[in-house]
Records
---
Amino acid sequence: MNQQDRRSLSLYDLIARNWTLDSAIETGVFNNENTCVCFALQEGKLALISLEDAEPPHSRIRVEGDTGRSTISPREKPIGGAHITDPVSVTACKIAPFGTADFIVGCDDGTLNIIAPDGTSAPLTETLNGTVLALDHHQASHLTACASSSQVLIHGPNDFKARIDVKDGGHFTALSLSPDGKTIAISDQEGLALYDVQEPNTAQRRINFTGSPTSITWRQDQQWLLCPLEQDGCQLISLAEQRSTALSNYPSQVTKAVWSTPSNAFATSGAFRAAAWSMEAPPIDDEKAGALQTGSASLILVKQVAANPKNDFVAIGYENGLVLLAKFGMKDELLIHEEKVSVTCLEWSSDGKQLLIAMEDGTAGVVNFPPQMFK
């Protein structure tokens, strides 16, 4: 590689690996040991990529002795390829990490499969009565929950199985297991209910509100929930006070809402910057309370956000393909990636060292941040 080539390399070129997959990417996740990522493609295929790296960025950093200036050299070896499976569903699957290294996949025919990093598949005996709309797995308790529009199944060790059926006229929209694995939150078109996982015959409590949640995210202390809504905005729910408030008037649908434990804050997509609030003054009565200016305002909609689990940074993905990094409550931004199509997924690894990026055109990337970048 000549010197001109080296000078033209972007930060992304130096610290990320990039793949072009078969079709548009719906979503992506890391496995629980952060050794593999799985992407769900719109045509029902899966893409599995090993994260083993012979030339990680930190190994290519050199510090000049006289100036202390750090430089990073480009890769010299080709990166590994992606393993693309045959279609396992007509449309994009629902995916979640399963166990230590595997993934669980929910399909449009109601079936569930365990997929290993090498692509081998093992079916689960449980089958839903319709398309899998939501899926979650709790690693510590080995519980798996999945939902169709009319049925929720929970299964776990020692042949534990439970089923929750929708009430007449309703339909389920999302579910999420609590951080301790003891409670499951299930939403429908009129709000959300909480069930004891071991005895889910009757809801422990219910919180009604207007709008159908598309996902449910627990705060780590299990006192708050965030629910992006299909129509407008995001619902913030206080379980301690058993009430909620709608964060509304977004210019676009909120597709993602995330908690930041290090920042004691949360952020959502759907606006012209990452919409963020501090939980020091939760916006439960006034949606302007606790508002944090995070990143700079633009004329482009934010489609994805992802809060780093180990520090104050949030990754922000835009409709025009930009991916930026900002700190909660700070305007300064760092450009991570630039494409020409919308960002469809952003996810951090559980150790906060790697960022998964997925694009509408099938471009997939994993950014491996050297420790120096977060100092």
Note: The chain has two helices and 34 strands.
---
Amino acid sequence: MHHHHLPAVALFVALSLSSLAHAESGRVVTVGEVITMTLEHSPDLAAAVVEARRAGLEVTSERSRYTPLFTASAGWLHRETPSLRTGGVDVAGSDDVALAAGIAHTFAWGTSIAAELTMNGAGRDFIQPDSAAVLRLGPTYGLGLRVQVDQPLLRGLGRELGEAGLRRARSVKTAAELARQQTASEAVQTVMTAYWEVWYEQAAVAIQRQALIVAERQLRDATIRRDAGTLADYDLLPLKTEVATIREALSEVEGRLRQRQIALGAPVGGHQRLVAAEPAPMAAASRWDDATIVEAATANNYAVARQAALVFQAGVDASVAGDAALTQLDLSAWLAFEGLGDRDPGGALSMLATAEAVSGYIGLSLELPLDTTARDSDAARARLAVDAARKRQQAVTEAVVASALQTLETLRTTERRLTFARETTAIARESAEGQRVRFEGGIATATELVVAEQLRRQAELRVARAQADLAIAVISLEHTAGTLLETAAGLTSQAPSER
């Protein structure tokens, strides 16, 4: 990016601004410093940063959605049961110990796999009705291994649906980051515009003060000539009126300057008055043309990019709603291996290893609502949301492009206005100087001198106003094109840490 310093209104204005900055009560700051302070104190930007972080955590959560799940359980059951036998009632006891460990995992495309290993041991009392003896059975040891697979065939099938939450979370994160950048760019635009308004008011104060100095000097010189008898009292009236008029204008512009300084200091925290140090370097206006600004606004504008993210989110929501409207048809299958040992754990392990006892299942399950109106309506509503999001994206894009082209035309007009104002100022200065010489020579009247000085002062004010307007137009254009933060980064890197 090429930069140039916008020229000063005039040498004496630049010198007056320097002395004005030191004379005014307030902190003298560069544009880089005020940008840094604004970004550090902006509550809106702080909130946008928090939202971006929150969206980032949502992405992290969605990434971890499809992770293996380990399960484990352990239990001991002791039971005593009364039973009838010959001669009365007796109590039989039993003890069961069960251990289980498993792992389950659901993949993004919908498949679920689970495996579980179980171990148990049991000992039981057995009461024979026709015997007084209580038999002790066991201990027995059992081992089991079960593997199960579930696969959706319609609803819930496919990686696109399984990762819909992740894709949406990423889109939300993108939108939140764009919102953060947009908030930062808006804050920079506001404070840089306010900075240039302060600069203009300072220039206006300097011009009015310089004009007052000139007018008072001319009035003193004219008074001396009146006392000498070469001028009448009424010849001084235009000069006295001019001095009073300038003082009135100076009072007004000084009040406006204080208001601008307070407004500049408000976004950076506290109620301090800030004084603009010097004009900020801005990008050359000639770097923009219609095609360039339209391309930049379409590709880089934060509001347009956010709308694109919202369209993507609506598309993800539509795919989820469309899937929910499908019939649920799932395939399930499991295979189980079991082993049992009587007083010998090794027997259970041997039976399990040789697959002597195997069970299996495969089947389909169907869920079909008798009335699909609600689901179909949800899916249709989601599709309409996509259409609405696209229309909003189109509307925002068209508005941004139109605003960019209008701002570019304002920029071009302001450049021409500045050029003509400088030409007018040169002529007005020459005319004022000529009228001064003629007045001192007794050829021109005081009124002619006053008019010439007023025209010069007005021309100088128009140059300062056009200079500020040109900078503000460039700031607005760069904000629309999404490059203002880049410019601000360059300005803040040049800003001194202390003044």
Note: The two ends are 27 Å apart (CA to CA).
---
Amino acid sequence: MHDTCLFHPSAPGEWTCQHCGASFCEQCVIWKDTGWERGKKPKAFCPSCNQQLQWIGAANLLPPFWERLHRFFVYPFHRRVLLFLVAISAANVLLGHIPVLGLMVRVGTYFVMLRYAYEILKTTAEGDLYPPPLSTEVLVHDLTPVLKQFFLFFLLVVGAFLVASAAGPLVFAYILFILIFIPALLMVLISTNSLIRALNPMIFVPLAWRIGPAYLLMYFFLLLLGAAPGILVQTVVIHLPGFLQPFLSVAAEYYYMFVSFHLIGYVLLQYHLEIGYDVSYEDFRAPDVAHEAVSDREASPIWSEERHADSLIQNGRYDEVLDFLGRRFRAATQPATELCRKYFKLLQMKGTDKETLRVGRHLLPGLLERGERQEARRVFEQCLESDSSFLPDADSLFQIAEIHDEAGEHKRALKLYQRLYQNHPRHGRAVEAIFRMGYILNERLLAPDKARQVLEKVIARYPEDPLRNRIENYLRHSVP
């Protein structure tokens, strides 16, 4: 399996083909619209063999968790999470002192917050790095995950008593073993939703082993996060006004709970390939991972299919790629600029002049619209080499004449403006082209008599044109 894109070695591979073994970035795969109707993302297919691809992007796209630690601490500051945390902490403080009711509130809110922390871990592990929505279904109606977690800890405690009664000194080794592998136990519980599998050391120990040294690093950070609420209270909160201390103490406990569960979920996501945990492309949402290809796909649905051409070129199948691009070019009402660019270059290599000129006429406006003026100039010159009578549209010809004028090639620009006027005399740019001719003759070539002759001729021929007043003013003040 490749870790980088076949066509862009500097880009991480997000999709892999089980048929040919190649990996591709999101821009290079062929996207088919299957699924749009159901509100799902389109399917990705191999540009080489047209087989559906398997997504591996979560593992390759995401930075290691130690490179984004700041994002774990920012995570609970999402608006809905922060408001929820503040509301629950305030309820804990305000109602916690009432006999009986206060105990019920504290226990109830802890269950609710632990349930939401579990949901944070679960959604993060599934590839959604945004906080999960708040709903009664998640927080109250389905407490099964929390109950399973408590039952898991209960069974571990029972196991400690059994070990202590059977072999007293070994209980310390048992406790140390369990403490080290608690995050792995939670990961197995999340990924399998099975208590039996979560308690099986033949499952959770290999899981931690496959994650490798990163597991120990995660464990170290979890120890720090577990100690953080107490340290914060002892060093900062006790110095604040008394009415704030209970609230901030509770809020700190829940804040670091959310951060810890988000961290565990992220590690499970980051190492999902090693662990054997499936992550669906449909569910992947990461605020710190840019998917420019998504917007490219929506803006230019045609070009996404042309990635197939890259594979054909890579394999030297030039006749096939020419046929493929030719069919795409002829089928499009307005062929995409990138399609025209690739097709134009291949046609030049092949020496097909007639089709090259046809594609060049479509390519020039696209290049000029993108601001690729020098590239447009080169394409124009290449078309002229194939056919000296090559004539693009009037707007493109006008802009190419401008490019030559700006480059100091005034005689060349003069000829192009004249050519525009002769071939497109009724076009809106015709009068402006003649005006530019007069300006070049007067200012650049120092031929005021010829300039006056040209400009007076255009006034006589186009008496109603909006540029007439400007041309007359120029004649009066600038031409000797």
Note: The first strand starts at residue 15 and ends at 16.
---
Amino acid sequence: MVVADSKPISMALDAAFPDRSVERLTGVGPSWNGANETVGVTFADGDRAFLKIALTDESRRIARERAVLRYVDAHRPVPVPEVLAADPDGDPAYLATAPARGRELLGVYEAASDGDRERLLRRVGGVLAALHADRFGRHGEIVGVGTETGTAAQSDVAGGDVAGGSTVEEGAVESDLAERRDSATGLSVEFAPWPDGLLATIERTREIGTSERLAGHYDAVADCVRANRDLLSGAPAALLHGDVTKPNLFVTTDGSDANRTGTDEAAGTRDPGIAPIDWELSHVGDPARDLVRAEDQLLNSFDSTGPDRFPAALREGYRERAGGLPAGFERRRPVYEAVRMLGRSGFVDQWATYLDEPVDELVERADRELQARLDAV
């Protein structure tokens, strides 16, 4: 789908690619995020890129995504697109990336048999486990480039074995870490207790929601988080993607290898064959929440779920890579499922359009579903 140019897009294109001629711009599909706009760019020489611009003062999302893409690329827990150009302080703020390798999971999944869908979901579980292996000392919101790094950076410096007792001398590790921080591949993280981060997420969802019909849901879920503060405070802190959906994942290998965890035995690597894009909601948080959200966005509808074999495959892939599900997953999962309902409640008008169902009916169903989830906590 060819899209019309606009002044913000033109300004960002001129800043990001001042010496390149653009042949056409294309749409990237529907989005419920009104803070950004993303277009595909085809240059006159045939090269392609994707350009994301901030339409509101949410430029922090651009800064976050640029920082996380560079961090993940430098320390390689999972494959990510290359950053071609970025200016989080620009007018407009923008981020340009190279196309992701492979094919969008959405199309691959829709065309796949049930058995192939299970194999794909195991690979998605594996890529989440690979990402979540990057642990931090505290939870927090990523706001841009800085000096904070997780265990992936330390393992990278020490040949993958810092935590287990490396033969690399301590001074050499510290020197190499300092050099990497200076090369702008670290993160700036505003640390905060995990329950406070969840409460801030609830408030941001309230701000960007497109319907007030279920405004009381925000307060009900916030009360649930506060009531379970001690349970949530003990969660591990890992690098999370924050928005695992089929359009945000690309299948980079054919999956024909016998090892379902994604190990490329010929190359001696642990490539899960899935590349995530769209990292603007990435943060340092509880890996259990990322897994709950991924399962919901990949497999569930408004208030229904699919066959149990599919979430089981996602979790199996996670276990194969990580050795188990995130610590405390089953205990904290009900809280995160209540939080997930706000993605329905705050956008019930858009859900009505998407499902082609009366909004009043969806409001009643959402009320019943949220109460069931709160009762399960």
Note: The longest helix spans residues 114-132.
